[in-house]
Design goal:
- It comes from Lentilactobacillus buchneri subsp. silagei CD034.
- This protein is mainly beta.
- The chain has one domain: Cupredoxins -  blue copper proteins (Immunoglobulin-like, Sandwich), CATH 2.60.40.420.
- It is 0% helix and 52% strand.
- The chain has no helices and nine strands.
């Protein structure tokens, strides 16, 4: 992380690694999701709270921009809401 942008890489395989992402408030942020196996419902990641929904093809990195203007905890999950993670903006 530098002072101009925060970037977090998340591996998607049987869940999210890491499943808890900590970001500094007020610094632009992005999360790179990369799915490494073809487990069914992990082919989509979405968050109503953070305003994104992305299909995750196997071995393709998808980047989502995450707003950091408000502090708090914001959830994200797979397409069926079985696997979950969260973003903590502090």
């Amino acid at each position: 992380m530098n002072e101009n942008k925060q970037t977090v890489n998340v591996t998607v395989a049987g869940g999210y690694q890491p499943s808890v992402i900590k970001l500094k408030q007020g610094v632009p942020a992005e999360i790179n999701f990369k799915r490494i196996n073809d487990q069914g419902c992990l082919d989509v990641v979405h968050s109503n709270e953070l305003g994104f929904s992305e299909e995750l093809p196997v071995n393709v990195t998808k980047t989502v921009q995450v707003p950091t203007d408000q502090a708090g905890e914001f959830g994200f999950s797979c397409g069926m809401d079985m696997f979950k993670g969260k973003v903590e903006v502090i």
